[in-house]
Amino acid sequence: MTMKKCIMCGKMFDPEQITADSKNPFLDDDDEDMPQKTPSFCQQCEAKIRHEADDTRKGVKPM
User: Distance between CA atoms of 19 and 38, rounded to whole angstroms?
Assistant: First the structure.
């Protein structure tokens, strides 16, 4: 269990736990052969980034 420091808030987290939690149970086992990037953000900071990104999206223009 290697602990890593979040680059945004500095909180220590376990990247292996995050990848295990975000694993899709419906995908085939063949997809596990692909190398995965280790996350650099803790779950709280990643959720904050995703929330802010969703807020900044432009709305569709009516035709």
Answer: 8
Could you report the per-residue pLDDT of 45-60, keeping only the tens digit for each?
988 998 888 877 777 7
CA-based nearest residue to 39, from 7, 9, 1: 7
Residue 36 tokens read as 């995965």
- Kindly report the pTM of this predicted structure: 0.60
For 12-33, give the DSSP string: EE-HHHHHHHT--TTS-GGGGG
CA distance 44 to 10: 12
How far apart (Å, rounded) are the C-alpha atoms in residues 5 and 26? 30
CA–CA distance, 14 with 51 (Å, rounded to integer): 22
